[in-house]
Amino acid sequence: MARSYSLKQVLFGTDPGSVPCHNATAINMISEQQIDQIADALATEGYIILDHVLPESLLALLVTQAIAPEVNHYKAAGVGRDQNLQQIAAIRKDEISWIDNTNAAGKDYLAWMECLRRELNRRLFIGIFDYECHYAHYAPGDYYKTHLDAFKGNTNRIVTTVLYLNADWTSDNGGELVMYAPESNNVLQKILPEFGRLVIFLSDKFPHEVLPANKHRYSIAGWFRVNNSSSTRVDPA
Ligand code: OGA
Ligand code: MN
Which atom of ligand 1 is nearest to the CA of 219? Predict the structure, then answer.
């Protein structure tokens, strides 16, 4: 007797625990359980810290690209449209490199995030529309003072993601992401930027800062947005 397959199985394979991403390489899979866990956390605490939720092969690609020595693809980060360079340097010292589809690392990361975007919308009805992200490099001593990634009524950034790409990072190296409680400003979490760690939080809820490190620190900061009406990308939060 012929075996019958559901449409989902035919299109995306037989693993019932995974959902498909918009990428044919099949490395960009995320399980239903992981997405449920992320959605639940965003709906309750408003943030989540996950380790090695992205495929190892993708993490390896990303770290290669982040530290690519042949070209310096980073440039000084801006903070807000109306701030001058001196003010910006007082707030943040990192340099950034926007991610696009032009290489496998960027393409696969964006595809993975597209999958998460679609599945979060399905669960939370938050209508997130697109995703933008950049590599960030903090040289020793660099920091990013306490800030919000979004201000109520004044932004399209809804959910922040930060992925860390630093192998062999210990507490002696510093560089923690410090998250503060929305109302009290008490320290909520001090998070080491360890390889493969992904932090996801509501962009307008949690003030946060990056403490200086004594080693080069690489991450990818990204934002799910409600629309893509931003006319320029020169001034990310
Ligand atoms: C940011 C940011 C945190 C980090 O880029 O807006 O807060 O840990 N990054 O790199
Ligand atoms: Mn931030």
Answer: 10
